[in-house]
Design a protein that fits this description.
The complex is a heterodimer. Helix content of chain A is 81%, strand content 0%. By secondary structure, chain A is an all-alpha fold. Chain B has helices at 48-55, 96-100, 102-107, 111-124, 140-152, 170-187, 198-204, 238-250, and strands at residues 6-17, 20-32, 37-41, 63-68, 81-84, 158-162, 190-195, 207-212, 217-223. The radius of gyration of chain B is 18 Å and the shape is globular. The chains are: A mainly alpha, B alpha/beta. Chains A and B meet through helix 7 and helix 8 of A and helix 3 of B.
Chain lengths: 251, 254
C-alpha cells in the first residue's frame, strides 16, 4: 500500500470511528434526542422537506465562496498596491490594522440598517472577516526578497517588472496561500455569523429556526453541512497550493 | 604590457548613516588582467564586499576611478557580470536548469541556445543529471555549483564571487576550491574572489590582494607564483607557507 493511500485510509477510519463513538454514546447512554441526536436521527433530518436543505445550502455556499473570492481578489490586489507604492502602504496599512480591530460581529446591526438583510450583506460579513489575513500575508510575502537576489538582477540591468514577475510574486505565493488557508476558515465563520445576525435564508438561519422547535437533529445536520462547505473550500485551496507551490516552499 | 582588464585607482567609499561617516574603502588601487583569478582577502568589515559591489556597479564610490574592459575585450555592464554570493540563492520554485537560465531570461537571450549552454555548464560544474531537480533536493555544495553555473550562463567576461564557499563545511569547501580552479581554466573568465580564508585566497589566486580593517585600506597585492593546474599538494609547499604567513603577518595574526 502506498504511503498516501495509507494516510487517506487512516484519516477516513478515524472519522468513521468518531461517528461510531457518537452513535454508541447516544445508544448506551440513553441520551434524549433533543439534547443530542444519534447519527441516524441527524441524517434523518435531511428528509424534512420544510427545511429546504438544498436552497439553504446554496445560499450559505454563495455567501462563503462569494465573500472569500472577493477577499482573495481584493486582498491580493491591495497588497500588490502596497508593494508598488510605499506611500499607499504607509497610509493604508495602519488604517487597515485599526479597522481590523473592530469586532466584525459588532458591525452586524449596522450592516442590517444599511443593506437590510440577505445574501449581499452576508457576503460582506464573510469578506470583512477574512480579507485582512490575506492582505497581511501577501504584503509580507512580497517584502521577502533576498537583497542579494535583487543585486543579481540589478547587475543584469533587469527591470522592476522582471523582479516582480520572476522573483517577487512566485516567492510570495507560499505566503499568499498561508493567508488564504486562514481566511478559508474565517470566511465560513463570517457567513454564519452574518446569517445569525439577520437573514431569511441559509444554514445559519435554519439553525435559529429549528432551535425554537428544539429539533436538535436538524441543528446537528446544519453544523455538519456548514463544516462540509468549509472543508470543500479548504480542499480547493490546498489543491491549488499543491499545483502552484513547490513542496519545499510551502509554509 | 597590455592594458589591464580592470583598473582601480584611488577608489574610496564612505557610508553615511545617521550623521556618522564610516570609511568602507580607502584608496583601493589595483589592476586585474583579463583571465586572472584574483583573491581579495581580509577580515570581516574590511570593505571587500563593498569593493566588489562597486566593481559590479551596484554601489557608487566617492572618489577615484573604476575602469573595466579593454579595446580587445570591451565590457558591457549589463551583460558581462556574473555574480556568486555566499548563499546559493536559488529560486525554490524553479528546477535547477531553470535557475541557471534566470540571467538569460532577464537579458532576453535566445532560450533554446541558452538551455543548451546551461546543460553544458551544469555538466562543467558536475551537476549532470540534476537538471530537472528542485533546489531542496540538492546539498549545499551542489546548490552553490548550480549558482556558479547560473553566473556563467550569459557568458559574462567577469565573475564576481563574494565568499561563495563561506557557508560550506571544510571538506566540501576544499573540493569546491579544486572545482572552481577547474571551471576557471575551462571557462577562461576573469574572476574576483572575495574571501576571509587565507589559505583559500592563496590556493585559488593568481594574485592576492590583502585588505585590512580599521581603517579599511589596501595592505598588499602580490602575485602567487605557483603554476596551474594546482592540486591540494601545493598547500604543503614551502612557497605556499610563505604566502600565507605573509598574509597572517599583514593582518597581525601571527
Amino acid at each position: 500500500m502506498s504511503d498516501n493511500l495509507q494516510r487517506y485510509t487512516i484519516a477516513i477510519l478515524s472519522h468513521l470511528a468518531l461517528v461510531a463513538a457518537w452513535h454508541f454514546f447516544i445508544v448506551l447512554g440513553k441520551v434524549p434526542t433533543f439534547v443530542m441526536p444519534s447519527p441516524y436521527a441527524t441524517l434523518h433530518a435531511l428528509l424534512v422537506p420544510n427545511y429546504r436543505w438544498i436552497e439553504n445550502i446554496t445560499v450559505t455556499a454563495i455567501e462563503i465562496f462569494g465573500g472569500y473570492f472577493l477577499a482573495v481578489v481584493i486582498g491580493i490586489g491591495i497588497a500588490l498596491l502596497f508593494s508598488w507604492f510605499r506611500i499607499v502602504e504607509m497610509t493604508m496599512m495602519p488604517l487597515l490594522v485599526t479597522l481590523n480591530m473592530i469586532p466584525k460581529v459588532a458591525l452586524g446591526p449596522l450592516i442590517i440598517v444599511w443593506f437590510s438583510y440577505g445574501i449581499g450583506p452576508n457576503i460582506a460579513m464573510a469578506f470583512a472577516i477574512c480579507f485582512f489575513p490575506i492582505v497581511l500575508t501577501t504584503a509580507r510575502g512580497l517584502r521577502e526578497v533576498e537583497p542579494d537576489l535583487l543585486d543579481l538582477v540589478r547587475t543584469l540591468k533587469g527591470s522592476r517588472w522582471q523582479v516582480f514577475i520572476k522573483i517577487q510574486l512566485p516567492g510570495a505565493l507560499p505566503y499568499i496561500f498561508s493567508g488564504m488557508k486562514v481566511a478559508a476558515i474565517l470566511a465560513v465563520a463570517g457567513a454564519i455569523v452574518g446569517e445569525f445576525l439577520g437573514s431569511d435564508r441559509g444554514l445559519g438561519y435554519l439553525m435559529l429556526q429549528v432551535q425554537v422547535t428544539l429539533d436538535t437533529a436538524a441543528m446537528f445536520m446544519a453544523v455538519i453541512l456548514i463544516t462540509l462547505l468549509g472543508m470543500i473550500l479548504y480542499g480547493i485551496v490546498l489543491a491549488l497550493e499543491r499545483l502552484l507551490v513547490v513542496r519545499d516552499a510551502r509554509i | 604590457m597590455s592594458e589591464p582588464f580592470i583598473h582601480l585607482s584611488g577608489v574610496r567609499k564612505i557610508y553615511r548613516t545617521r550623521g556618522i561617516e564610516m570609511l568602507a574603502v580607502s584608496e583601493a588601487t589595483f589592476d586585474v588582467d583579463a583571465g586572472e583569478l584574483v583573491s581579495l582577502v581580509g577580515p570581516s568589515g574590511c570593505g571587500k564586499t563593498t569593493l566588489l559591489k562597486i566593481i559590479a556597479g551596484l554601489h557608487d564610490h566617492d572618489a577615484g576611478t573604476v575602469r573595466i574592459g579593454t579595446k580587445e575585450q570591451p565590457f558591457n555592464p549589463a551583460r558581462d557580470i556574473g555574480m556568486v554570493f555566499q548563499q546559493p540563492l536559488l529560486l525554490k520554485w524553479r528546477k535547477v536548469i531553470d535557475n541557471v537560465l534566470l540571467p538569460a531570461e532577464i537579458l532576453g537571450l535566445p532560450l533554446a541556445a541558452s538551455r543548451e549552454r546551461a546543460r553544458d555548464l551544469l555538466r562543467l560544474v558536475g551537476l549532470q543529471g540534476s537538471e530537472e531537480k528542485y533546489p531542496y533536493e540538492l546539498s549545499g555544495g551542489m546548490q552553490q555549483r548550480a549558482s556558479i553555473a547560473r553566473a556563467l550562463v550569459h557568458d559574462p567576461k567577469l565573475i564576481l564571487m563574494d565568499e561563495p564557499f563561506g557557508a560550506l563545511d571544510a571538506l566540501t569547501r576544499e573540493k569546491m576550491n579544486l572545482e572552481l580552479l577547474h571551471i576557471w581554466q575551462q571557462a577562461k573568465k576573469t574572476i574576483l574572489f572575495v574571501t576571509h580564508g587565507i589559505t583559500e585566497a592563496v590556493f585559488l589566486g593568481t594574485r592576492v590582494i590583502v585588505l585590512s580593517a580599521g581603517p579599511a585600506r589596501m595592505a598588499d597585492n602580490f602575485r602567487v607564483d605557483i603554476a596551474h593546474p594546482r592540486t591540494l599538494d601545493i598547500k604543503t609547499q614551502e612557497k605556499f607557507g610563505e604566502y600565507t604567513r605573509r598574509i597572517y603577518h599583514l593582518l597581525g595574526m601571527e
